[in-house]
Here is the input.
Amino acid sequence: MKDSMPGGQFNRKKKLMPTASTAKFQQPKGPSLSDIQLIGRGLPTKLVVQGVQGIGKTSFAFHAPSPLYVVTELGVETLIDAKQISETPFTPRVETWRGLLAILDELATAEHDYKTLVIDTINGVEELCFNYVCNKRFDGDWGVHGFMSYQQGPRSAAVDWRQLLNQLDVLREERRMAIILISHTAVTTFKNPEGADYDRFAPVLSKEIWRLTDAWADIVLFYNYETIVSEKDPTKKGKGRGGGNIRFLYTQRTAAWDAKNRHGLPFEIEAGSSSQETWDNFIAAKKAAQQKES
Here is the structure.
């Protein structure tokens, strides 16, 4: 798209390049007062579920309305084979960035009854994105003179990641599909600008990719086991009720993890004893927050 168009009559013998004083800029039409809204459109949720390994992120998403899994790993297939969840639609493992975008294009244009898109996992999707960018813009060079030179690769990949998020928004707005992105987490060291550094949970993603994804989402859930301090010996963790095996969905950021929500959810939602109960508790918390606001 051109940002500017030359204006006025130019000398026929010598074509001048437009300058700030000669060019007429074609501005996109912006909203007017007649476009002002009082209520939202009731769009489905944009949700990121991140958490420790094996806690139940994939099975949690299974209970969303009419899900389709787009997979970069085979967790959902394993759960089906192990009878942990019933049969549910999932793609073959996506192995290229262009292949992923093609699936999203087809979901946007083809007839289907899916109501939720589950991407399992965005960690794998980031790898596809980085491979694509490295080969296209850095001649396949992953080294300090290529993709990793002053973090040029991840910054360049952010352009493509925005395209992905835009395509997800199309599915949400035009096809009314909820979006669930699943992410693994790991313990990393946080560079604290106000004091000593400390360890915290973080998605296994580059900082730039996570920054974009976190800003895009309506809800970011951190799924983890509760660590309980013994009343008899506060130095021993995991010795209280449940022995630290009670699972919770956390909805707000702390020094220990990233989370957020735009729905007025409580700080934590108890997951219960099954993935169905976890989903039901999450939906109940959303409904309770809506009723509280109304």
Remarks:
- Helices lie at 57-62, 75-81, 97-109, 122-137, 152-174, 207-216, 275-293.
- Residues 42-224+251-266 form a domain with the Rossmann fold fold (CATH 3.40.50.300).
- The first strand starts at residue 4 and ends at 6.
- DSSP finds seven helices and eleven strands in the chain.
